[in-house]
Amino acid sequence: MPRFSYLAALVGIVLPMLALPAAAAGPTTYNCSGDGVSWVSTRPCPGAHNTELRGMGNNQAPPSSGSTYGPAMAKAPEYLQYLSVECAQLNDAIRTGPARGLKSGPMDELQGDYRKRCAEEDQRARKRQREADDQQRDRREDQQAAVKAEKMRATTSSEQCYEMLRILHGKRQRVATMNDGERADLQRFEDNYKSRCPRG
Asked: Can you tell me the distance from the alpha carbon of 96 to that of 26, in angstroms, rounded to the nearest whole number?
């Protein structure tokens, strides 16, 4: 039997048997299957290779006060979505192994196989995740900058309208002493104020 097939079979047999106790102690988990391999994940099953989802955990009865808890299950990495189905399966099996009760022997084999098969792919997936995070951060910063700039424009416009209104009020106080040219200037200033400050 090929080495990966043996490890995949081991993961497919051991993890589903140990899934229920860990699910009761943690968040929703998923029973995933694909390419003849089954594994357990706290994230939706990766890939599109006929994987199946079965939510577990949230609808389970809480453990009794005398239950013994195993190691906490590590959070699935964000870059998991950029791995192939095979590498995502191995990554999830390694991550959930301690919480599922896998011994050091099978864990060492899984980790060694992951390094052999998925080292370069892991690096590429991490790079893609960093790029996605950077893009998301840039979009967020752009949105924040746009909101800030709009607030500054609104503040500046409000201050300008207030100043124009102050000047207009002063000119109106002197309208009785104005000549025709000054009254024409006042009318133009008032029209400009109304066009720029419709709420004034």
From this structure: 12
Strand order in the sheet with 29-34: 37-41, 29-34, 55-56
Task: Write out residues in the chain with pLDDT < 70, as ranges.
Answer: 1-43, 46-71, 199-200
Query: Position of tokens 């080495």?
Result: 3
pLDDT at position 145, please? 96
What share of the chain has pLDDT > 90, as a percent?
Answer: 45
Q: Is 186 helix (H, G, I), strand (E, B) or coil?
A: helix
Strand duo 55-56 + 37-41: pairing: unpaired
Give the whole-angstrom CA distance, residue 137 versus residue 142: 9
Q: Are 85 and 49 in contact (CB under 8 A)?
A: yes
How is residue 187 written in tokens?
């009318």
Contacts of 45 (CB under 8 A, 6+ apart): 30, 32, 33, 34, 51, 52, 53
For 150-172, what is each residue's pLDDT tens digit?
999 999 999 999 999 999 999 89
